[in-house]
Structures are given as C-alpha cells and as structure tokens.
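Much of what follows relies on a compact textual record of a protein's fold. The record below shows the convention in full:
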Amino acid sequence: MPTPFAILQEFILSLRHSRLAILVVSLGFVLPVPATQAATSPAPQAAVALPPGVTQGPSAEGITEYRFANGFKLLLLPDDSKPTVTVNITYLVGSRHENYGETGMAHLLEHLMFKGSPRYPAIPQEFSKRGMNFNGTTWLDRTNYYETFEAGQDNLRWAIGMEADRMVNSKIARKDLDSEMTVVRNEYESGETSPPRVMLKRMQSVAYDWHSYGRNTIGARSDIENVRIENLQAFYRTYYQPDNAVLLIAGKFAPREVLQWVNQSFGRLPRPTRKLPEFWTVEPTQDGERQFAIRRRGDVQLVALGYKMPSALHPDATALGFASDILADTPNGRLHKSLVETGLASAVYAMSLSGYAPGLQMIVAQVKAGADIEPVKQAMIAGVESFAATPPTAEEVARLHRESSNNFETLQNNPQQMAVAMSNAIARGDWRLVFIERDLEQRLDSAEIAAAAGKYFRRDNRTVGLYLPEDHPLRAEVPAAPSLASLLAQYQPRAAIASGEAFDPAPGNIEQRTTRIAPGQAPHTALKLALLPKKSRGETVSVSMNLEFGDAQTLFGQRAVAQLTAAMLMRGTETLDRRQLADEFTRLKINGNAYRFDTTRENLVPALALVGQVLRHPRMDAAEFEQLKRETLVALEATRKEPDARAAEALALHFNHYPAGDWRAAQTLEQRIAAVSAVTLEQVKDFHRRFYGASHGELAVVGDFDAGQARAAIDQAFGGWNSAAPYARVLQDWAEPAAQRIVIDTPDKENGVYLARQNIRLLDSNPNYPALAVANYLLGGSSLKSRLADRIRQKDGLSYGIYSSLSIGAISDAGSLAIRAIAAPQNLDKVDAAVREEIARVIKDGFTEDELQRAKSGILQQRNQQRAADAGIAASWASLMNLDRSFLWQQQLDLKLADLTLAQVNAAVRKYIDPARMTVVIARDEAKAKQP
C-alpha cells in the first residue's frame, strides 16, 4: 500500500462501530486564498442532461447513480460546503478472487497501479505537485483508490483522466514488480512484528477450511516473492475493466460538467468481451471447537475467540456485531467489566471479518505477560456463549442505537469519508446497502440480537485452538444471503442531509470572521478565546482548548503523576461514574476528548458544561485508578522487545541532557515503569488540586453556534477557575551531543527500524525557515515522491515506508531534522548508506527548479485543504493564540513560501543539514541481519 499509515487499513476497515478519525498532516501553516463572494448552500441535485449512451440509475439521500453502455457506473455526491473533492474508484476484486499460488496479488497490483501509464507516467509526482491526499486499499472483496484535493477544474479533470487511463493502460512492468515486490515483502514483515495482526492472520487460516476468506489480504510470503508478471498482467486485464468498477465523486463540483468529463474518459472505453471468473466454493458448517497457539517472542498475551457468521448482507451479521459490541465495549462492555475491571485482562475488543461471503466475528482480550491466561479464556467463553440466555438490557440497546446514529451522522457530514466508506457496500452489490444497514441497526431489538448470538456463539462454531473429537456436535448452520432485490425492496431513502455555507477558508477571511476575546476577570474566563460562527454541514461545531500550568521547578519529578492525572479525567466526575460519563458524551454527540471535540449546535452549551465538570471535578475513583495503573504498566511492558520503542528510547536518551526528574528528561522503560508503579491516588488528587485551572490557556470554537451563548457557557464552565501553581513555559534547551551509530538487538523480529536525527538551531521566525521546510518536503516529507522515497523505496525496494520530519519551534531554537524507515534486518545497513548518499547528493548538486515548483504547489494546496476542516481551524487558532499570533502570520509565511527561489532552498540545505552530525539508531534482530 502506498503510505505508511495504510498498514493498519485492514483493522480500520474491520472495526464495526469505532468513531471516525481524521488524520491531519501539517507543517503548521496555511495558504491564503483570494476572497470570494459568499455563496448560498446548494439546492437539491437537479436533473442533468445525459450524454448519449448514459442512463440515470437510482438516486437516494443526495447520491445519484449513472450507468454507461460499457458497464461502468458513476455515483455523484455534490456538496459545496467545503472547497475539496474526493475521487474514489472501487474495483470489485480483492483477496477473495485470488487463486492458489497468487495470494496477495490484488494487493501487489494495487502497489503497481501507482507506477504510471503512457499518458500519466509520473502519478506520485503529480499527487505531490497538486497537494493531493491519496491512498489505495485492498480488502476481501474489493480494491479502491482515492484522491482528496482542492476543488477546481484542473485537479478534478486530471484525476478523472488519470483513473480512466490507469484502469486499462497501467504499465504493470517487470522492472516495477522487481522493486515493488521487496517493498510489499517489507510490509508483510512489518505485519509479522504485530501480535494482533499475526493473530488475525492465523485465526483466518485456522477458522476456514476452503473459502478464500481464510487467506490474509497481504498474501503468503512465497507468493509475494515468486509471483509471475504474466499472472499479474492477466489478473489486471481481467478485473480492471469498466464493467467491474464504480467511480464515486464527492465534494464541490458541477454535476453536469463532471458527467461530461467522466463520459469522455471512461465512457469511451470498450465494453470487455471476457467473462468474469465464477466462484462456487462454499465453506462447510464447522464441526467442532478449534484451538491454536502462536509462540513467538513478545511482551503481551492475546486470547481470541472466533465465530463464523453469515454474509454482511444477512441481518444476522449486523445483529451479531451488536452483540459483540455489548460484550467488548470500553467501558460499558460486559467482558470489560468481568475481565478488565477485575484485573484478569488489560483490554478487550471486538472486530469482524465481514464481507460478501460468510465472515468471522472475533473477540480478543489482552493479558499481561506471565499471567495465567486459562481463567481469561474460560471467562470469555462463558460470557460470550451465555449471551443468548441473558439478552441485552434496554439501556444496552439504547446505547447502541445512539452510537450507531451518531457514527453515521458523523460519516454523512463528511462526503470525503462517505466516499471511501461506500467501497465496501459497492463490493457487496450496491452502494445503498450503507443506508440499509443504518436502518437495520436502528430497528434491531434485544430479542433479535440475542437470537443471532444463540445461533452463532456456540461451542462447535468456536475457534480458539485444539481439535476435539465429539460424538454429538452442536453445529451452527449459516444461512444463505438473502437476495439483493429483497433487501432493496424494503429500503426507503431518507431526505438528503442539509448542507452548510460555502465558506472561504482564506486566512484573511478566517481572521475577519473570527471574534477574538482577551482574558477576562471573574466571572469571565481567563482563557484567550477565538469564536468563528459559520453554517456547517449537519450543524456541527468544533472546539479546541489548551490549558497551561506549572513551571520547571514545580513540575520537577511529576511527569508520571501528571500522566495518570490526565488519564483519570475521563473516568468519571463527582456526579457521573465512568459509564455514565461515556453515555453523556454519546448523548451530547461529543466526538473527541475534553480538550478537542466535535458536537452539534444544539449540544454545544451542555457539552461545554460537561467538559468543565470533567476538567474541574474528576471523580478520582480508587478502583478506576488501580485499573488505569494496570493498563498503563501492561502497555509499557508490551513495548519491551519492540524495535520501534527500543529505537525511540535509545535516540531520546542519546540527546537527553537534563537531570533525572526534569520535566524534559528522557527515561528508560524501567524508569517509566518504576515511576508509574510508585504513583498513588493521593498524589494524583494533589496534582489536580495544585496545577489544574484555566488561568492560562486558549479556547477556540468554529462551526454552527451562537457566539453569545457559547461565551456565556465558557464563562460558566471555566470562569474563576485558577491554577494554584505558578506558570512559566518549560522550553527545550539547545544542545548537540556528538553523533553516534547505535545498534540494538531485538531478537525474533521480522522487521527492523531505522531512526536518524540531527539537531538544528533555528526559530520559525528565521528567514531561512521557509526554505528549510521546503527542503524537508523534498528530502522525505512528501510521501511517495521525495529524494529518500525515490531511492530507498522506489529504486532500491528496501523499505515500505521512509520519511523525514522537521521540528522547528517559535520560542525555543532547539530544533531537529529526523528520518524514520522500516526494513528487514538485513537491509537496514543499506538503508543507512542510501540515506547518507542521498543527503550528500542534495548538498553537492542541490534540488532542481522542477522539484521546487512541485514542492511549493503541493505544500500550499495541502494548507488549503487543512483549513477546509472546522476542527483544523479551531486547533490552529488555539496554537496561534498560545504564541500571540493570528492567521495573518500564517498568511505571511505562505507568501514567503510562494516567493522562495531555488538558490534559497539549496543554501538552506547546505547551511543546516550535515550527515556527519546525524545520530543513527538501528533496532533489529542481529541474527537475521547476518543472513543474506
């Protein structure tokens, strides 16, 4: 997959009811956009003149389908509330469609699709130039590719044309396979280092006898290494065709115009003459409990139960997912109460392998290394398989209905995320299944949930491990999926959600629309405030807050206490226990935490009041505190042999120049464990009394709200609440220890980690900062297209992911440049050599004018996208106010970026970057490193 973050995609896709997360990658500044006249919210989608051969299909809840003569389908979801567009194409091919000896082929092909086509030979370079957020993911039944970018004709036409061309004209060349195979193999090796992912892969292979869902999407190592280019090309020609794909475009665009562009690019493609392969394997009914054991080095134990379940098209699959949520939710789940709160386990979670064919429901417990896992296993089996006899309570069902409604509302308010979420529904047969499942979740009752659990949570349908002979099996018959037509016949579309205003996210407009309020005297809050009311999709509103307290003297020796104090805040207030508090967050539609959250207009005032109670009056329950300490210690122990953690610790200790106890001092794992173990509840309570308060801090609100009501609610929540301890910033001091090369042995780990760091003495107000930021973007900060990625991933095929990062402050001049990569143990020395060679080449020859223009274009467009999100604006305001800055400062910085010359960038590289001053840490299995 094309980005380091995508290695978790299988898990993200498999979690049924998790809250949505938004990843923001930023250098901390945004681009000014020329002010435009305010636009009104878009009217409902009007009828569009259809090109010849194009017919309009079903339309529901703001989405309209169009069908082309060659079998291609297009979905349009126009939304003018944000100046961005997402293009998402779904191919109906995944790991389920692979044959023997070809496992991992769908995923490997996904990688090669970024290698270009005749008309679009440099796809990653164009992504970088246009500042596009992009990715590709492969799962059981489908592969999808998406790009999110700044709205505009040029970007959108390019994306449509590129996707159409690479559908049928991608290179899929031997030379690209040779280098990308090793990258994918490194991704495989990375998964082999993760206990949860190893557990999932083994659970699939043991639970299934014949169906291809028993094969993990990444594939077998031998298949990855030995796949033939002819097989890969044949797979591509079979499945990457217009009649096997659905394109969804969501965001700000003109439907009539886009329909013409899609017809010109995709409509001209010929209808395939080949017939898609037919798959007839049906998994037999499981005839007994299964159990397996994974024995590897590690620091944490996992106990997993797996149960076969029907296709995601069957209502029992949804009901079984609800039953799993009732069992494994944190903190309300039944297993959480019986296992985590009693200390038998440190965490419990549920996940599902769900798709077009019958799937697998899993429930997993994490247990401290060395503890007896047999009581945990028995308690889990008893709790799960007695579920049908203890049906869900009215409170449990109501909680699930609220969470389901809130999660879907959050999804629907973000067309970009909705576009990607549609891929799984498309793979199951129709995009409207997203709404059908939503409606099903809202009407499921206790009896239906309990009935589904009774059918499938049964002994002979369980996979934990050993095979056991049985004279009288208790088999669970998995029913066939109902027809798609019967499901669609029951579906009644809801009205499309209301859109927000067409907001101009230019810095000048943000500055003009925002009301800044200086710190006040009681009863007013002492926080600095930024209030930006605007109409938003779904009447959503974002809040971001910072609280600052303490100084270097008062915080000395307090880091572990502070860590546990912060973690105790969400475990109850004086009037609400932990479960009641979690329910209140759900009721008020609060997504996030006490410092940064989203909610809705009608819930903002009570949400601020609740957050005030969380911060000012935490419950500090003794049982919760002991549970927190156990969870924290188990999490620390789990990192003991992990290459990432060991490398990061070694690098931090090398650069540490502070005495033990200093707030900034690096600590060993043993020191951190000892510090957490020594903390008492009285110390936590005392820390909260001494330090917490709103004497110093910032709070920003952006979205659909009444400014007067919000100001009053903020004053009510935080006015007169002062920290007893003095406050002064605790800043990093400049220091530069001698460069070293440190190698750490992490036995029995398939993957290794490379970290490099050079300290740089610089402030972001220095004239050289913009040039150095661009240099970092070109060196390794720009995903697939950078000097380091070109060499180490694209050319040498040594690493699945390598990137660089630049950390430069506004007040402290103790900055740094860091580089991180993963690779097989035997390849890490090659990675180190290649990094040094590429930096030396940049210092000697410099970057090119073409690279400079690409970097400026990409960085500035990314800033535009960052400001399109209300949460991003709120977080930026909180950070800017902390530094006594405004969006005009960001505007000035963007202008400096736009005006940079090649000479300035190359001069900054030669002045600040020096490989001889770079400390390198390598964590790997030394025995594997000596192997060829």
